[in-house]
């Protein structure tokens, strides 16, 4: 085995060449080449190490990391400076205590986190797998950490893949393997992988000794969806490698007995580990503001030290031959310079060293409370909120703009087939609509149909196999916290997109009747057979144009395609005639058959279940009857069982990669167009009236965001023609639906179908349905062979493979024949309208960025109350840049279109709707300013048909230009860029995997959780942290000023009136615990009130708790309190013989009591825990000083504190001075709060007072509050509207512009 990364000669250095300058060459580890063996010894293994430290590197490495924080460097510098005799202020040993304590606490926290990572690494590296041994000539169990690149690994069902492997063998006869990627991206649906094509030992179990091929592939990267390379056989023949051949580390083998692969990437070079970025770290807005205030503190410190230095120099200059001075040749200027550094050491507490550690502790506690909030727990998904970013909790309380995806974020992402149009005829599926209404009513009453269905899903268990090893969740690869337990291997896995809501589709009776006419003599009529051809092709496309995996609980592997032996109702010649009439003149639309029965009774009779397998032959004599055996189960998605030997329809379980695919396959199944099996080269499809047919699968052209469609190329089982079935976005398919050349009659027919289908699509969009178009194309043998040669070249290419495959697909998907379209309903999640309304009341502007049609987006915006009935709609559908410029000029010629006051509040009655093409022009450099100004003046903005790149550009534009706090929320991979750009990114763990979650700062399961996350926890986190930071600045400045005032009475000598131990411990220990409790548990308003009064959130948006003015007022208050705490004891001891420490003792005690009681005044919550901490801090100080004064004789040279505090505490004057000082120091702040709260109370205070009312008074006050808020807004709107010169109606720019 070896893996050699070497440059490739002649390789292009173009940026488009994603392969880069290196390739990786991999051969078998069984090679006997000595040179390759040496490379093997030097190459890294599969051992994974996510720890940052080792036993020897912990201290130096952790210290180096902590030195990246400027504050730590500053305090280390001061500690070292205190060892210089000329400038030292007190004992050098004491000066290092604060920084040692801070560094130690941080190091212990880092060590604990690293130890948890070490335990996780040890568990994963110790897992076992089977590796081929050259000595024993068989597969033996070895640990994951012993796997190397080039080793052959054999895995069984339910085993986890230890490294990235190239699939060389599968026990499946068609060379197919199924994997579950839940550990990697959260998706529970099965994905198909296939063995490398044209292997010499294809079909038989691989013998590693006979493997002599060479693999050339790309260097390790983090792209989970891409793998490129080729395998060169000993015959020098090459075959292309792609992502379908690669088994990724941490995925799980499912529904396959045995697979064998060769390792190409191991350990940290696997794609899973390349994507393991760990927790996200961002700088919050409050932290940026904190850094500014720390700089102001530095400026204040320098000013105080300069003042002391200048004063000391002047004092020395004015003293001549003083008897108390030690003779010294140092000049007053140099002495002042030395004293500057001495004062830096003395006043170092002004820079809050413990603040940074305290902030980290408080944020961890805030995250703990958020994660353990039961309101965020989703019982259905058994998930809770995840906090992946550890240091931006306070940003949740300052959000001003929310950018939301639609599908899966605002909606359920449970795609349910609602209705369809085929060949220009619309089928409303009224009974299916009533089913959805009944389901919603049952769900509202508490019936959980979906939960029962998901809990009983059995698709992913291999019950008939002996699977010795269970599946576990690899937390180190998925970013889950270690505290989360892995799922039990005995529990049944959930089948994605398979709830009764999604499966139990009620067919349209008129469409069923037309399908049943396959058995009628009338089906050979020209017009009827043409329409029936469209219908059968339509459902054929729904059934096979996908990548759905079909599984069965009674079979160990995927349902294979058996030999079809059943006899269809009609002869194959008649069926062929039906499909060959595509070239006939356009048919006239058949009128739906009429019936005297009600739709419900007719449907029930039509959809009665029967035993199909016993009536196929007999039903040939009942061709005019609707209850044919082959179609008797049409109305039940679980249908009747098929003929003997075939899997029962009830037993089939579909594993789809997206909910759209699942909805369409379930819809086709409801009409007995059932996908029964899939293999690498063929599909088994049951069609009504024809039985089961084996369809040869030639190619799959997967969906991508560029083409916005997917196609399958098949050999039609009846006509033997090469047919391309395509489904995709209506905006794309309608453009590609051109009629074949030379078919004039067909052109007329297709023109009519396109016209009618477009009308139906517009109606679907207005109803809020997701639309999808279906088309087909028949290719001649010559055309297919020409295309196949080019496509084969693209598949085997390494360079520019994606571009070549895209060109190949686009070359094939032209001149399509439009078959019809589907309308899929995606219901709103619960409480979405209430959440959006609450956010808007909170002053948050909500933008919806979606890729859906404009009509669909507007309908959803109305349903979720983003667009109100009183709003005026500004719709922009521009085809050119000139029209966009004209739009801005018409709407806002002089910035009077919307009141400025309303723009600031975001309450104007205008909603802007922009399509993707217009957005492209609006985001250009010369137009984005106008676009931003217009959107800023609108209450809401909806961007439809937007791409993932456009979403991120919009978020970045608003964030950077308006300088506001932004939040982006989404659930899919197309939302990742938007989530990462926003200040706060939130992922929803929904139906589309975990890509958005893994890229987010916070992950929730439902959109409604955003309401409490922002309005409650965001508000609490911001106010608590802001108040705690201000309190830290206050207490540090207040105490430092005491030392500064003393310099005026000691000749600015740098002396202090207290011993150095108390000086160091005062802010580090005596007053450190109360602020922590203040920042963790303080609660200004209850959660219920914050939910009911979203307007309270605006205080955080405006940073009212931490404004620059608030900071400086706090500094002034600290200055006043320090003056009181210093001069009252000074005047009390005036004229006495009190020494320095005796004078300082009541100052320290008064300062401590003032600081602690100051917090009591500022706190909104006072519990027994607060009392315990506050009293404990005071007792700790007095106990320490008392013991210190009793036992310490030489602890603080040159001063001697022996007996000082003991004597002071025995005198009444000490307590009188402390009490008077404390009262006078706190009196102004107390009076300020009393006057402000009485004269002009804040909204937060009013809400807090409402919490104290009894329930009846509380409800009345709450109603009165809401009425007052509504009336004030209404008055403001009336006044502003009257000031306008004109009123803008609903404005839509003509498309031709």
Automatic annotation (TrEMBL):
It is found in: Endomembrane system; Endoplasmic reticulum membrane; Membrane. It is a multi-pass membrane protein. GO terms for molecular function: ATP binding; ATP hydrolysis activity; ATPase-coupled intramembrane lipid transporter activity; magnesium ion binding. GO terms for biological process: phospholipid translocation. ATP binds at residues 405-407, 661, 703, 727, 770, 850-852, 945, 951, 974-975. The chain crosses the membrane at residues 290-316, 336-359, 1046-1070, 1111-1131, 1168-1193, 1213-1232. Residues 40-96 form the P-type ATPase N-terminal domain. Keywords: ATP-binding, Endoplasmic reticulum, Magnesium, Membrane, Metal-binding, Nucleotide-binding, Translocase, Transmembrane, Transmembrane helix. Belongs to the cation transport ATPase (P-type) (TC 3.A.3) family. Type IV subfamily. This is Phospholipid-transporting ATPase. The lineage of its organism: Eukaryota, Metazoa, Chordata, Craniata, Vertebrata.
């Amino acid at each position: 085995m070896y893996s050699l990364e070497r440059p490739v000669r002649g390789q292009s250095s173009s940026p488009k060449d994603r392969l880069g300058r290196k390739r990786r060459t991999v051969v078998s580890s069984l090679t006997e080449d000595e040179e390759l063996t040496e490379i093997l010894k030097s190459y890294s293994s599969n051992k994974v190490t996510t720890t940052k430290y080792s036993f020897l590197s912990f201290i130096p490495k952790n210290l180096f990391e902590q030195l990246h924080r400027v504050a730590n460097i500053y305090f280390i510098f001061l500690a070292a400076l205190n060892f210089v005799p000329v400038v030292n202020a007190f004992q050098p040993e004491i000066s290092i205590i604060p920084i040692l304590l801070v560094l130690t606490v941080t190091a212990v926290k880092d060590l604990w986190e690293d130890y948890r990572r070490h335990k996780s690494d040890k568990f994963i590296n110790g897992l076992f797998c089977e590796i081929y041994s050259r000595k024993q000539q068989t597969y033996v169990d070895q640990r994951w950490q012993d796997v190397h690149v080039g080793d052959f690994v054999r895995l069984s069902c339910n085993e986890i893949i230890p490294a990235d492997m190239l699939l060389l063998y599968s026990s499946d006869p068609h060379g197919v393997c199924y994997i579950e990627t839940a550990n990697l991206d959260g998706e529970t649906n099965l994905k198909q992988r296939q063995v490398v094509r044209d292997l010499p030992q294809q079909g038989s179990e691989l013998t590693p000794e006979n493997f002599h091929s060479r693999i050339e592939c790309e260097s390790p990267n983090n792209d989970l969806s891409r793998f490129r390379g080729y395998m060169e056989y000993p015959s020098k023949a090459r075959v292309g490698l792609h992502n379908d051949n690669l088994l990724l580390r941490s995925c799980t083998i499912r529904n396959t007995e045995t697979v064998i692969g060769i390792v190409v990437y191991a350990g940290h070079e696997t794609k899973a580990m390349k994507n393991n970025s760990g927790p996200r770290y961002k700088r919050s807005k409050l932290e940026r503001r904190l850094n500014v205030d720390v700089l102001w503190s530095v400026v204040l410190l320098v000013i105080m030290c300069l003042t002391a230095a200048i004063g000391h120099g002047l004092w020395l200059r004015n003293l001549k031959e003083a008897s108390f001075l030690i003779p010294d040749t140092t000049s007053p200027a140099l002495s002042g310079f030395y004293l500057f550094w001495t004062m830096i050491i003395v006043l170092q507490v002004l820079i809050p060293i413990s603040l940074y550690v305290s902030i980290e502790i408080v944020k961890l506690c805030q995250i703990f409370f958020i994660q353990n909030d039961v309101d965020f727990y989703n019982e259905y998904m058994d998930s809770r909120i995840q906090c992946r970013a550890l240091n931006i909790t306070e940003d949740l309380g300052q959000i001003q703009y929310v950018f939301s995806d639609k599908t899966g974020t605002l909606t359920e992402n449970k795609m349910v087939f609602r209705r369809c149009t085929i060949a220009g005829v619309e089928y409303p599926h009224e009974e299916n609509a009533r089913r959805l209404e009944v389901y919603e009513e049952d769900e509202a009453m508490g019936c959980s149909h979906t939960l029962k269905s998901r809990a009983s899903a059995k698709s992913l268990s291999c019950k008939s196999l002996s699977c010795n090893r269970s599946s576990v969740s690899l937390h180190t690869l998925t970013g889950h916290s270690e505290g989360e337990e892995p799922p039990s291997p005995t529990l049944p896995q959930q089948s994605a997109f398979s709830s009764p809501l999604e499966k139990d589709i009620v067919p349209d009776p008129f469409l069923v009747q037309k399908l049943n006419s396959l058995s009628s003599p009338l089906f050979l009529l020209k017009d009827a057979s043409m329409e029936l051809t469209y219908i059968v092709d339509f459902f054929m496309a729904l059934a096979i144009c996908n990548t759905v995996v079909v599984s069965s609980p009674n079979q160990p592997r995927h349902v294979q395609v058996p030999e079809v032996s059943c006899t269809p109702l009609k002869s194959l010649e008649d069926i062929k005639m039906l499909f060959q009439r595509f070239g006939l003149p356009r048919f006239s639309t058949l009128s739906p058959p009429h019936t005297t029965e009600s739709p419900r009774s007719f449907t029930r009779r039509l959809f009665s279940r029967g035993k199909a397998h016993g009536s196929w032959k007999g039903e040939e004599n009942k061709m005019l009857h609707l209850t044919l055996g082959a179609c008797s189960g049409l109305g039940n998605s679980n249908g009747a069982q098929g003929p003997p030997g075939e899997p029962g329809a009830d037993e089939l379980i579909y594993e789809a990669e997206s909910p759209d695919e699942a909805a369409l396959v379930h819809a086709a199944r409801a009409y007995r167009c059932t996908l029964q099996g899939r293999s690498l080269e063929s599909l088994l499809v049951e069609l009504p009236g024809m039985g089961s047919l084996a369809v040869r699968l030639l190619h799959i052209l997967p969906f991508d965001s560029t083409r916005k469609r997917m196609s399958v190329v098949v050999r039609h089982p009846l006509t033997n023609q090469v047919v391309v079935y395509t489904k995709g976005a209506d905006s794309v398919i309608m453009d590609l639906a051109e009629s074949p050349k030379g078919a004039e009659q067909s052109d007329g027919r297709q023109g009519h179908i396109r016209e009618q289908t477009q009308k139906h699509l517009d109606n679907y969009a207005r109803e809020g349905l997701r639309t999808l178009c279906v088309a087909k194309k028949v290719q001649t043998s010559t055309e297919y062979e020409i295309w196949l040669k080019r496509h084969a070249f693209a598949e085997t290419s390494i360079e520019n493979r994606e571009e070549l495959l895209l060109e190949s697909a686009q070359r094939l998907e032209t001149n399509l024949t439009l078959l019809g379209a589907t309308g899929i309903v995606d219901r709103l999640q619960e409480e979405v309208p209430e959440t959006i309304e609450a956010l808007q009341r909170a002053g948050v502007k909500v933008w919806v960025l979606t890729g859906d049609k404009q009509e669909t987006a507007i309908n959803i915006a109305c349903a979720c109350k983003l667009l109100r009935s009183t709003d005026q709609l500004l719709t922009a559908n521009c085809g050119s840049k000139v029209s966009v410029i004209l739009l801005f000029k018409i709407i806002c010629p002089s910035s009077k279109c919307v009141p400025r006051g309303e723009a600031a509040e975001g309450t104007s009655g205008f909603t802007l709707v922009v399509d993707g093409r217009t957005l492209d022009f609006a985001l250009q450099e010369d137009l984005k300013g106008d676009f931003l100004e217009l959107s800023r003046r609108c209450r809401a903005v909806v961007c439809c048909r937007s791409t993932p790149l456009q979403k991120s550009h919009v978020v970045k534009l608003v964030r950077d230009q308006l300088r506001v706090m932004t939040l982006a929320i989404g659930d899919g991979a197309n939302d990742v860029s938007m989530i990462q750009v926003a200040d706060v990114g939130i992922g929803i763990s929904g139906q589309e995997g975990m890509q958005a979650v893994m890229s987010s700062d916070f992950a929730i399961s439902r959109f409604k959780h955003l309401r409490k996350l922002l309005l409650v926890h965001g508000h609490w986190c911001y106010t608590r942290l802001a108040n705690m930071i201000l309190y830290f600045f206050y207490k540090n400045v207040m105490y430092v000023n005491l030392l500064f005032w003393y310099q005026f009475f000691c000749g600015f000598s740098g002396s202090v009136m207290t011993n150095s131990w108390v000086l160091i411990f005062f802010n580090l220990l005596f007053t450190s615990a109360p602020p922590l409790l203040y920042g963790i548990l303080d609660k200004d308003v209850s959660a219920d009130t914050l939910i009911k009064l979203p307007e309270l959130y605006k205080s955080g948006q405006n940073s009212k708790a931490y404004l620059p003015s608030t900071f400086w007022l706090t500094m002034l208050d600290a200055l006043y309190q320090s003056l009181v705490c210093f001069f009252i004891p000074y005047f009390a001891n005036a004229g006495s013989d009190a020494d320095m420490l005796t004078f300082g003792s009541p100052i320290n005690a008064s300062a401590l009591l003032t600081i602690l009681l100051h917090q009591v005044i500022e706190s909104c919550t006072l519990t027994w825990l607060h009392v315990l901490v506050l009293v404990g801090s005071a007792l700790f100080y007095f106990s320490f000083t008392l013991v210190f004064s009793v036992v310490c004789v030489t602890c603080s040279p040159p001063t001697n504190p022996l007996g000082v505090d003991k004597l002071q505490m025995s005198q009444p004057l000490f307590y009188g001075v402390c009490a008077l000082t404390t009262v006078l120091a706190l009196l102004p702040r107390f009076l300020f709060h009393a006057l402000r709260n009485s004269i002009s109370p804040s909204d937060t205070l009013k809400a807090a007072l409402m919490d104290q009312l009894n329930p009846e008074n509380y409800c009345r006050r709450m109603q009165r509050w809401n009425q007052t808020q509504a009336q004030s807004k209404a008055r403001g709107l009336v006044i502003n509207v009257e000031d306008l010169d004109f009123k803008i109606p609903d404005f839509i720019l003509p498309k031709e512009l």
